[in-house]
């Protein structure tokens, strides 16, 4: 898992938290591949292009929180800070 992420990763959710995989690069509309965690077909992809169901990734994070943070595995999408409308004065 030394590949460079295809999508800029954000935070690893807390164990039991939900991933936010909104970027379209998390979905391969042409090919289902076996999930790296359950081996069932999925069109979903991690930041590293690894096939993984979102629910499987969330379960893996809950079971392996230290390793998830250390590896940055199954991160949420990067969420840039939004400017508040009252910041424009």
How much of the polypeptide forms β-strand, as a percent range? under 5%
Q: Class by helix and strand content?
A: mainly alpha
Number of strands: 2
Which sequence of strands runs across the widest sheet?
1-2
User: In sequence order, what are the helices and strands, one letter per element?
Assistant: EEHH
Integer average pLDDT: 89
Identify low-pLDDT runs. Answer: none
Gyration radius, rounded: 14 Å
The helix count comes to 2
Which descriptor suits the 3D outline? Answer: globular
Biggest pleated-sheet summary:
2 strands, antiparallel
The amount of helix comes to 10-25%
Roughly how many Å apart are the termini?
Answer: 46 Å
How is the quaternary structure best described? Answer: single chain
Report what the structure shows.
The protein has 89 residues and is mainly alpha-helical. The chain contains two helices and two strands; from the N terminus they run E-E-H-H. The protein has a two-stranded antiparallel sheet. Strand 1 (33-34) and strand 2 form a beta hairpin. The longest helix has 10 residues, at 54-63. The protein is globular and about 30 Å long. The chain starts with 32 loop residues before the first strand and ends in an 18-residue tail after the last helix.
């Amino acid at each position: 898992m030394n590949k460079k992420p295809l999508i800029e990763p954000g935070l690893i959710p807390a164990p039991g938290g939900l991933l936010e995989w909104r970027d379209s690069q998390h979905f391969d509309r042409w090919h289902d591949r076996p999930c790296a965690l359950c081996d069932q077909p999925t069109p979903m992809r991690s930041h590293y292009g690894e096939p993984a169901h979102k629910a499987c990734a969330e379960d893996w994070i809950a079971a392996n929180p230290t390793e998830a943070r250390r590896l940055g595995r199954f991160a949420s999408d990067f969420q840039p800070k939004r400017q508040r409308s009252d910041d424009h004065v």
